[in-house]
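Membrane protein, pasting as requested.
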Amino acid sequence: MAGLLRYVTLIAAVISTGLVAGLFYAFAIAVMPGLAKVDDRAFVSTMQSINRVILNGWFLVAFVGTLVLTAGAALFHLDPGRRGVLLCVVLAFALSLATWAITMVVNVPLNNALEAAGDPDQIGDLAAVRERFEAVWVRWNIVRAVTSTAAFGCLVWALVLLGRVRGVGD
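Structure tokens follow.
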């Protein structure tokens, strides 16, 4: 049973981390470049809307899952025969923690400041609001896209190594 839990936890960590990495990647290569082409009002309004709707259960399960499931996967691989797997999982955890830190220290405060700016129809200087938000948010989103994608890669490699160590039932 422990062997099955070992695999299930690692697979769940891979899935949650992949979902988060994919989200940040999509913002980096499509959403933000697309929004870069719209006027200030459309930009502020759209980002405020996105920031409101992203705070939902599905996002939170994946986002929280990156740390909780990766930590759980690490606990299942503490024995000496799985050092390579453990190393990959611990590295993935550190990269996911970096992603979390960037999100909480940079992106969330920027999102909150954008929301606090108020209704785009009532903002006197939309260009200034956008200027304080866009470049910094985009830059740090790219960093968290890289850290979360690297974490995903580490977890995928951990699965490969785990498959080489023993079968599913152990």
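Note for the archive: The longest helix spans residues 126-165.
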